[in-house]
Design a protein that fits this description.
By secondary structure, the chain is an alpha+beta fold. It has a domain of 176 residues: Transferase(Phosphotransferase), domain 1 (Orthogonal Bundle). It is 34% helix and 12% strand. It contains nine helices and nine strands. The strands form four sheets. It has a three-stranded antiparallel beta sheet, with no helix packed on it. A hairpin with a 3-residue loop joins β2 and β3. α1 packs antiparallel against α3. It is globular, with a radius of gyration of 18 Å. The chain starts with a strand and ends with a helix. About 7% of the residues have low confidence.
């Protein structure tokens, strides 16, 4: 059992009408809350037991073979697609937000909805610059106006998939300003060791223009997931020795210090 503590202020609570699919989201795709204890100033929230997070797993493995990456990433993308269908934008998406639910590391769930934004209707426009620098989309960095929250989530999914398969971020730099410049340009290299379908999926997600990206649901329909990896080229995703570029703490600071 996992415990998190939150400060509570009753004055900030307001009634919210949630769409029907959100009830399914909470059961299937999100780490379950087992108990909530309310104190005078804090809420103690108990979650189901977990067995580590995806970020630590990728660091330990260096990178994943395509068969394993496809199985885990499908669950990650499914969680995001269900949330989008239920009227939620998740915003601060990253590998660390997904946790394993079994010791064999075969089932993953979204850790919580801590940073999620509940949409009022079908408009998913957001204006705040929220997220983790390594996973942030170009339009969040480029605009002072609004952007599509769902498309920004999809960009973060692309960063996750690339990192799982390659063992490093598609855009990385020690200096945040240099990192943001690389993200704005949207240029990255894909190793030849990846299969054509994996390359296609990555390129279809990590597009600079938000309207050109696949949706979270379209990601699930990509033919990469239906690949018979038992007969495909065994070299795809091979774990050759490479420099570890996924840091221990993956630029966990938020974007706030860079834009305030």
């Amino acid at each position: 059992m996992f415990l998190e503590t939150f400060k509570v202020s009753m004055s900030k609570f307001e009634p919210i009408t949630l769409r029907g699919p959100l009830l399914i989201i909470i059961v299937i795709n999100i780490n379950q809350i087992t108990e909530i204890i309310l104190g005078e100033t804090k809420a103690y929230v108990f979650f189901e037991r977990s067995y580590g997070d995806m970020h630590s797993f990728v660091r330990t493995c260096k990178k994943l073979r395509e068969e394993e990456a496809a199985r885990l990433f499908y669950q990650i993308a499914s969680a995001v697609a269900h949330c989008h269908d239920g009227g939620l934008v998740l915003r601060d998406l990253k590998l660390r937000k997904f946790i394993f639910k079994d010791e064999e590391r075969t089932r993953v769930k979204l850790e919580s909805l801590e940073d999620a934004y509940i949409l009022r209707g079908d408009d998913d426009s957001l204006s705040d610059k929220h997220g983790c620098p390594a996973y942030v989309s170009p339009e969040i960095l480029n605009t002072n106006g609004s952007y599509s929250g769902k498309a920004a989530d999809v960009w973060s999914l692309g960063v996750m998939l690339y990192t799982m398969l390659v063992g490093r971020y598609p855009f990385h730099d020690i200096e945040p300003s240099s990192l943001f410049s690389k993200i704005r340009r949207g240029q990255f290299n894909i190793p030849e060791t990846l299969s054509p379908k994996a390359k296609c999926l990555i390129r279809s997600i990590l597009r600079r223009e938000p309207s050109e990206r696949l949706t979270s649901q379209e990601i699930l329909d990509h033919p990469w997931f239906s690949t018979d990896f038992s007969v495909s080229n065994s070299g795809y995703g091979a774990k050759e020795v490479s420099d570890q570029l996924v840091p221990d703490v993956n630029m966990e600071e938020t974007l706030d210090p860079f834009f305030n």
